[in-house]
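Async update (no meeting this week)

Hi team, since we skipped the sync, here's where things stand on the single-chain job. The sequence we agreed to prioritize is pasted below, unchanged from the tracker. I ran it this morning and attached the output directly underneath so nobody has to dig for it. Comments welcome in thread, and please keep replies under the output.
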Amino acid sequence: MTPGSAAAPAAPVSCVAFRADGRRLAGGTQAGSVTVLEISDPARPVTLTEFAHRSAVLAASWNPGASDLLATGSADGAAAVWRVVDDRPPHLMKVLGGHPAPVTGVSWMPDGQHLLCQLADGRAAVWQAFSETYLGELDDCVRLDVSPTGLVATVGATGFVAVRDLAQARVPLAGRAAPAVEACAWSPDATTLALARRDGTIELRNAHLDPIRTLRAGDAPLRSITWSADGRHVLAGAYDGTVFAIDPSSRPVWRLTDPTIRTCSLAVGGPVLATATFAARPYLLDATSGTLLTPGLSLPALPAPDRPFRGGLLSAQGRVVTAGPPGDRTVVVEHDLRVGAIDALADRVVVSAAHQAVRVARIDPVAYEVERGITLRAPEPVRTVALLGTPETTVVVAASYDFRLWSWTIDWTGPPIGPTPAGDFGAGIAALQRLDEHRLTATDHRGELVILALGADGALSG
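Output:
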């Protein structure tokens, strides 16, 4: 970690955090830089200072009791506490290291002394930050949020949600099964916990985790959630770059879809909502209307999930994939969640992706019956897919919503081989396009294109 000025590469923003007064916004990037912006005028944010980690900055959180202290977490397993004063260079105060996995979240307790570090391996480390004292960990924690009164809500890998008062004990005060939950957020008055689900719904529960109501927000898997500053609206982000506001009675307030928005991180500062992005700066929106306050990249939206197939069309609608001419459609694949991407190869093989489930099927050469279907599980949620090879030996390529590319090889006589890492893109993959049976293009969110080819060993390379 290097305090002081850092060159600002055109790297995606991975995390955003507002200071309590809403006038300072910290944004961390995949290149390891942290930028602090002054946003008294959200339409004209001013860079106040920049500093650098040695690796990607994945999390940031301002101290609730000391407005000049900022905690950050990075991909190298370190968390840090910085003193950030407007008229002085940033000063690195504390380093909380030794974590066995990347630090994907940092959250201060209301006392401003204790820091929770969420780790990529599904645990959270508890620190007394200023004495650099490690106090233990919380198991089964892939996401967490701290209420203004100090209650800690955690979401486990299987969706088990727990609420703890760490000032009293590590044992949960309440715990409930809530499958398919991706994120959680306490309301500003600490009475209601919002849970974002993979089926696009939002559950509202009280501090004892009793259900209050379910909000029907859409069918795209949700990735992040927060509340408006006044607690009147729930703000959430879906994997497909959609952010929206909904009130607690399920009334839609606004909705915006932008393929350059990374909904892995949302932050509210007064009337402004900040989002992580695939651009080199956070996007700022009016939290009450969804109006974009900072100019975006104006990239086109992702194309509709359909492909020509046997003189007709292969298309996805909701959870199902159908094939055939208009008026005579046949369901060939069905998922548990909304299908976000499809592809077809030689009018015989079809692939579809819904969150982390990738289903590939070889279709009868005459009818639309599935000869054999295989379900693959991607290591990360999938944004887009492509098929290479032949109907006899098929290669499935899947791009995650962030930066990674994965592939599987299927010869249809045995189990698939994979997933195999096939590349890591610095700006995130927006689209895959097959050129021929051995080559495809991968286009990132900056519009840059790379051609990837299958080698003799079945591996993809650029």
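Quick observations from my side:
The CA atoms of residues 164 and 171 lie 7 Å apart.
The chain has two domains: 13-286, 306-461.
Reply here if anything looks off.
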